[in-house]
Amino acid sequence: MKKIGIIPVRMAASRFPGKPLYPILGKPMVEHVHARATMYHGWDALVVATCDDEIRQACEDRGYTVIMTGDHHTRALDRVAEAATKLVGGISDDDIVVCVQGDEPMLEPEMIDAVIKPITDQPHISATVLAMEIHDEELWRNPNIVKLIANDQDEVLYTSRAPIPYAKDSFSPELGALRIHGIFAFRWKQLQEFTRFPETRLEQLESCDSNRILDMPYSQYVAKYPNRHSFSVDSPEDVTLVEQYMPSDPLWGRY
């Protein structure tokens, strides 16, 4: 069972064009993501998937392995799936493919282990998503932050940019609201099924890949991770937030 990490990035991100190469504390965002993902030592391969020559050149200059994909993908998981078909040495149905979103410059290597472990430990699980509790009302209300609802078995029921679950009185950490942190793991067989399935209405409405799985014959499970000051970059304003907290991050200075 190989473990393949794929970092999907493109210049044409709708909310923040050019963000993979945007500097954060002097380093382009993709460098932060790749350097931190490399700290997970269980990979059989770690590659960057892009459709842009500008990103390819920047990554190859840094010694990263790059797989070029088509420019037609609107969803990260579809780009990851195409890149997986082009891996040197091939890939088998039960190998694990991990999508490490290219806009997670504060990821921790333990997060990768967290999304892989349920799949290796439980044969009935074939897809996971990393999520952490929301302790800040501003994040809960922020439409750039994708929230999710899961059942008591940790199966994802729905993902939304709206503040869910509903709070009758006022927000508090006890609400148990969860936000997606952009790391997803799949058995290769299930990721192939995902990418062959057409985009769904709820996926398009919420602009979130995970909602496609709601109409598929398998479930996505939540891999919970302790709350951290770890933020995705969906807009230029998010860079300010990341730069505020990254200097105190334990991994800063190790790359």
Please, could you describe this protein's structure?
- The protein is an alpha/beta fold.
- It has a single domain (3-229), classed as Spore Coat Polysaccharide Biosynthesis Protein SpsA, Chain A, CATH 3.90.550.
- 28% of the residues lie in helices and 22% in strands.
- The protein contains 8 helices and 11 strands.
- It has helices at 29-38, 53-61, 76-85, 109-121, 137-141, 188-196, 201-206, 236-245, and strands at residues 3-8, 23-24, 27-28, 45-50, 66-68, 96-100, 127-133, 147-150, 156-160, 178-187, 221-225.
- The strands form 2 sheets. Strands 1, 4, 5, 6, 7, 8, 9, 10 and 11 form a 9-stranded mixed beta sheet that branches. Strands 2-3 form a two-stranded antiparallel ribbon.
- Helix 3 (76-85) crosses helix 6.
- It starts with a strand and ends in a 10-residue tail after the last helix.
- The relative contact order is 0.18.
- The model has no long low-confidence stretch (mean pLDDT 96).
Low-confidence stretches: none
The total tally of domains equals 1
Quaternary state of this entry equals single chain
CATH secondary-structure class: Alpha Beta
- The whole-angstrom Rg is 17 Å
Percent range of helical residues: 25-40%
Q: Would you identify the CATH H-level superfamily?
A: Spore Coat Polysaccharide Biosynthesis Protein SpsA, Chain A
CATH architecture tag: Alpha-Beta Complex
> Would you tell me which CATH topology applies?
Spore Coat Polysaccharide Biosynthesis Protein SpsA, Chain A
State mean pLDDT (0 to 100 scale): 96
Counting H and I runs of at least 4 residues, what is the number of helices? 8
The number of distinct β-strands equals 11
